[in-house]
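PROTEIN DESIGN WORKSHEET
SECTION A - STRUCTURE
LENGTH: 334
TOKENS:
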């Protein structure tokens, strides 16, 4: 009979042959090999599943939202609370600006984003490489406003004078009917922020316009707003949806106050869309939240915060298209 490979025969002094048991070391090696094979199979099966589950394209009982502070303050905090109460799905909110919101979603590190500007494009109309996989869905309207300290006696500024301030031609509040004090000008770092990009576009017709004036630079809207709240001679640009919730004075532009009615009618000049951002391959839970924001219930929450809804601003759609065509802005239709 053929001997089994795992057994060995030893010659004993009495002439008898008997099988010898596998050594302890041999048994340990066998168990280790079996354990390693099992671990390998577990990794092959479980690792892709874990990757899928932590990816923002997979949405479980919670969602992440990243984006501009203006959109966050305009409605997103209240939407998050209402949606969690209605569905049990919690939404974790984090700021960082419109650019961060769009690109975090495009990169797949956040389920949703918020933006107060459209995706960036080259002069030839090519979407910025870091924003290609993001899709923007308009959910409301906002407007750019000039903000000052509440104690500042100036209540109104012309759009032309506002431009001249950022061009460096006007440096004192006296030129605007205020005290003979230097204007402490504030602004966002770079040209891609929601406010910075849109103000350059709407006021100067050039998203790449370089301000000639010297100004204090801030990474996000929150610190800029706090500076204006504290400094009596400060001036800055903001989104009205956020500014109305801070202790600042919102200046009228060309005699038109930035009220909900004036923005919705198109009389106030610096209106702009507000967007939610999703990945092009977003899962159903992301679409469910967007649909909720677009629903009558979601739009009512937006209206309750003083932000102009799509219905309230229905006249703006055609005006925005006309303005976008004139400025060469590609409409976001997703």
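SECTION B - SEQUENCE
RESIDUE ASSIGNMENT:
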């Amino acid at each position: 009979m053929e001997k089994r490979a795992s057994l060995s025969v030893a010659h004993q002094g009495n002439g008898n042959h008997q099988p010898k048991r596998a050594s302890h070391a041999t048994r340990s090696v066998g168990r280790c090999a079996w354990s390693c094979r099992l671990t390998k199979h577990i990794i092959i099966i479980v690792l892709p599943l874990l990757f899928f589950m932590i990816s923002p394209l997979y949405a479980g009982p919670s969602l992440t939202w990243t984006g501009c502070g203006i959109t966050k303050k305009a409605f997103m905090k209240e939407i998050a609370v209402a949606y969690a109460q209605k569905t049990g799905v919690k939404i974790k909110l984090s700021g960082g600006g419109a650019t961060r919101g769009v690109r975090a979603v495009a990169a797949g590190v956040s389920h949703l984003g918020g933006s107060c500007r459209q995706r960036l494009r080259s002069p030839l109309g090519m979407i910025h490489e870091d924003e290609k996989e993001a899709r923007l869905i308009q959910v409301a309207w906002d407007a750019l406003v000039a903000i000052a300290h509440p104690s500042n006696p100036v209540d109104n500024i012309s759009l032309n004078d506002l431009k001249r301030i950022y061009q460096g031609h006007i440096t004192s509040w006296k030129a605007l009917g205020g005290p003979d004090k230097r204007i402490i000008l504030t602004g966002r770092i770079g040209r891609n922020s929601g406010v910075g990009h849109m103000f350059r576009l709407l006021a100067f017709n050039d998203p790449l316009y370089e301000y000639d004036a010297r100004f204090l630079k801030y990474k996000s809207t929150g610190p800029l707003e706090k500076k204006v709240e504290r400094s009596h001679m400060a001036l800055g640009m903001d989104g009205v949806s956020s500014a109305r919730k801070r202790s600042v004075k919102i200046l009228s532009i060309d005699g038109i106050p930035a009220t909900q009615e004036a923005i919705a009618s198109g009389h106030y000049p610096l209106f702009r869309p507000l967007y939610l951002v999703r990945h092009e391959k977003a899962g159903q839970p992301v679409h469910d939240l967007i649909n909720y924001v677009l629903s009558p219930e979601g739009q009512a929450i937006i209206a309750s915060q003083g932000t102009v809804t799509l219905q309230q601003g229905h006249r703006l759609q055609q005006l925005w298209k006309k303005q976008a065509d004139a400025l060469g802005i590609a409409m976001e239709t997703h």
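SECTION C - NOTES
The radius of gyration is 30 Å.
The CA atoms of residues 53 and 60 lie 8 Å apart.
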